[in-house]
Amino acid sequence: MELIYTNANGESVTLRQTRPFFLTRVDGAGKVRQTVNTFKAPDQDGAFFISSAMDMRNITLEGSVITPTITETYNQRRRFLRVFTPKLQGTLVYRNRQIQCVVEEAGFTASSRERAPNFFISLLCPSPFFEALEEIREELAMWSPLLLFPLEIPGVGLEFGIRQPSQIITVDNIGDVACGCHIIFRALGSVTNPELMSLDTGDVLRLNTIMESGEELHVYTHFAGKRVTRLLGQVESNAFSLLDTSSVFLQLEPRRNLLRYNASENMDLLEVTILYRPKFLGV
Length: 283
Description:
With 283 residues, the chain is mostly beta strands. It has one helix spanning 70-83, and strands at 2-7, 12-16, 21-27, 34-39, 48-54, 57-65, 89-94, 97-108, 118-125, 130-132, 136-141, 143-145, 161-163, 168-172, 182-187, 191-198, 204-206, 210-211, 216-220, 227-232, 235-238, 256-265, 270-276, 279-280.
């Protein structure tokens, strides 16, 4: 059992069943709560279900500081309180999953054992979902290299790469709930109105613009983090106004998702990449 907490300044503390921070208890990482909204009519048995939403997650950690000397114990206590400051947000890593959190309470309980004081931490997670440590990358349209070394070019010429023939890709979201994603449209030449469609729902995300060679459009579909940016060379700008009014910020459902890219003109000059982190209800 090992947990790593890192605050927004990059300072981290590792809690496990060894010195100096000996972890004895973890609570809240494997359970979830939700608020259920219902409507009850007069004389009705039971109620009508309206909706439900996940509550924030609360994770509590308990353990002891164990060091050879009292002086080192106090040094570790100061380090502990500096890292677990309520003034900064942080990230907790547990069993190859991570979750964003803020320190609600962190301190030490009264103890006669000066060399092994007990600590208690309460972490409040505004988003209740654990996420994968690394983003998963899927290429919907790209060129596959064909060069091999040592290189010998025949008289009839040599293909340097081959375009993937299919417009459709399968994205397997291994998480427990739907998640947003980061979509990158990259133009190898002039491309008009790039778009991405979910074949499962029929939802389309379309950008009304003419992309020039080397230009990238980045679309973020995460909840409370939706945005569109244009990247041309080293210059990044807001491109939310390019979004078609009928567009939907696509979500990847917790199953197999079928996606298809397209463009009004020069689709063969368009590359599409999707980056996402699966979300989990617990670890």
